[in-house]
Specification:
By secondary structure, the protein is mainly α. It is about 55% helix and about 5% strand.
Length: about 90
């Protein structure tokens, strides 16, 4: 049974297609590249719009991004290690 699953996985990942499938994929890639690459200005504006949209979604500190804030230690003094306890003993 494991050999059958391995054979099916190999067939899936090796991407074996026949000549008609190759012809169809070539047609698809030609059409897609012709439509999307026809006008460089359109391509650049779509890229710029996607970048701007990503910027607007990711950069501002929306409240949804701070639903689980971290509780940081409060600073005590400028001395390194002041006020830190490990196993009940203060570290100086």
């Amino acid at each position: 049974m494991a050999d059958q699953l391995l054979k099916q996985a190999q067939d899936l990942f090796e991407g074996q297609i026949d000549f008609q499938g190759q012809k169809l994929t070539q047609l698809f890639s030609t059409i897609i590249l012709a439509v999307t690459g026809q006008n460089i200005w359109t391509t650049l504006w779509i890229g710029l719009g996607g970048t701007a949209l990503t910027f607007l979604v990711v950069v501002p500190p929306y409240p949804i991004y701070n639903e689980n804030p971290e509780n940081w230690l409060r600073p005590n003094s400028g001395i390194a290690g002041a006020g830190i306890e490990v196993d009940g003993k203060k570290i100086s």
